[in-house]
Amino acid sequence: MSEAELAMHGDGGPAKRPVLLFMSDYDDPAEWAPALAEAWPELEVRVWPEIGEPAEVDFALVWKPAPGSLRQFPNLRLIVNLGAGIDAIAADETLPADVPIARLADSGQSEMMTGFVVLSVLRHHRELRFFEAAQRERRWAYRHPREHRDCRVGVMGLGYLGLAAARALAGLGFEVAGWSRGRKAADGIECFAGQEELPAFLARTDILVAMLPATAETRGLLGREAFAALPEGAKFVNVGRGSTVDEQALIEALESGRLAEATLDVFETEPLPAEHPLWAMEQVLITPHLASVAVPRTAALQVVANCRRVLDGETPEYTVDRGRGY
């Protein structure tokens, strides 16, 4: 243990073990506990709701905690979010302002997201839905493949995950552009920024990949105006947040043919209600928010490193701005 760890709540007696609380209804603590123990053998992991003495909890590793559930830990030093999106935590006004929140940005999570995005883009580009329909009809239907360079892909959101996906698509030969709130730069990727450049970005995009965070600025950003700016017959992939899309506008764009197809992994309401019209649209592929998840084997190393940084008085990596929402 480091000097900072040995001095935790130092009173001259035996050193207190650092305590991390795991709180998630979506992630398996049986996978996380061994990974965390391997990364930091001295760490004690407690699983919600078995919290023990609240004052002993130093760190919280969470996904969508109930509002107010973290306020009971008076010595909480760090909250680590089990994913990239922090909208659930950012909305909790009961959290102490001085407790930093860090998001995950591990290699396993990035690889998983990149793979899903590439799979979705290739499925749309190679028109697999057409061939799936032909197979059901036992019909030999040939369509000549187009080169990757003839397809213009646009990635909205050039954060850690978005930039990795954009680079992978560019590496496959697609003509890739990216859009973000602030100016970014990446080799081989044309970068657009801000509201004033959004129409031009959309107008040059045949397959739009949304990887935006949930913030006040992005809520409903992809609506009627945005879909109308895309070329007729464009295709749409959303792996960011459901709140960024006006779902009624999306349905209308799909019904009119403005959008030819969509792959949707995230929604305004999750689980997607059984009566939602998107379920019945043959041109839509729905997946249950699984494009990317945290991988304990790799992510535990980042979690532990950030906990150690906090104990040593350093700023954790990938700290989020609560006001901006990412």
UniProtKB/TrEMBL annotation:
Molecular function per GO: NAD binding; oxidoreductase activity
Top-rank taxon: Bacteria
Keyword hit for Oxidoreductase: yes
Keyword annotations from UniProtKB, A to Z: NAD, Oxidoreductase, Pyruvate
Domain D-isomer specific 2-hydroxyacid dehydrogenase NAD-binding residues, every copy: 120-291
InterPro entries registered for this protein in UniProt: D-isomer_DH_NAD-bd, NAD(P)-bd_dom_sf
Pfam families referenced in this protein's UniProt entry, alphabetically: 2-Hacid_dh_C
Gene3D superfamilies: NAD(P)-binding Rossmann-like Domain
Protein's recorded name: Glyoxylate/hydroxypyruvate reductase A
Organism this protein belongs to: Tistlia consotensis USBA 355
